[in-house]
Amino acid sequence: MKDKAVFLDRDGTINREVNYLYRIEDFEFLPGAIEAIKTFHELGYRVIIVSNQAGVARGYYTENDIHILHNYINGLLEEKGTYIDAFYYCPHHPDGIVEKYNLRCNCRKPNIGMVKQALNDYNIDLEQSIFIGDKEIDIETGKNAGIGRCILVRSGHLINESDTEADIVYDNILDVVRALKKI
Q: Does residue 113 contact residue 133 with C-beta atoms inside 8 Å?
């Protein structure tokens, strides 16, 4: 039997939007995010982060900085009895100044390389899964990957709700999980 998963964008979806976030002292969960992550697990979902991290290609921080932050995030979550199953990120950007990362890749959203990696690592049923993000690029990624439901949240960037491909729009991920509990 395949697992269902909730694919979450990171910045603006589970944590306060900070441009090029990499320092743990700048990290702050959005209200309700921890409860939502815990509830997703209770509802039988794997919780997977899918995040573009162009700051690596731009030379603002390193991949090691991302790993430190992700370990910190999971440490905070574990203190509250929950966790992120996996973190996937794309360090590339075609305008990057770090040569190793200056490229067009298949992992940068809206491409589906990070979702494909999750499929390689876990036995996921995409039709039963959900993609949640705060930008239209997140919705495009979910649609491109064939994920069952793609949900836009208002918790990060200013969005144009009249011109979204999202299946539905909620204020934040806690509202999403509350709606799922009612289904």
A: no
**Rounded to whole angstroms, how far apart are CA atoms 9 and 49?**
6
- SS3 (DSSP) at 18: coil
What tens digit of pLDDT does each residue of 87-134 get? 999 999 999 999 999 999 999 999 999 999 999 999 999 999 999 999
Q: Does residue 145 sit in helix, strand or coil? A: helix
Domain that holds residue 123: 4-182
Rounded to 5 degrees, φ, ψ at 135 are: -135, 155
Amino acid (1-letter code) at residue 140: E
- Please, which residues bridge with residue 170 across strands? 153
- Give the Cβ contact number of residue 159 at 10 Å: 20
pTM: 0.96
Residue whose pair of structure tokens reads 């298949």 in the numeric block: 106
Domain count, the chain: 1
Angle at alpha carbon of residue 58, lines to 8 and 104, rounded to 5°: 70
Look up the CATH number of the domain holding residue 171. 3.40.50.1000
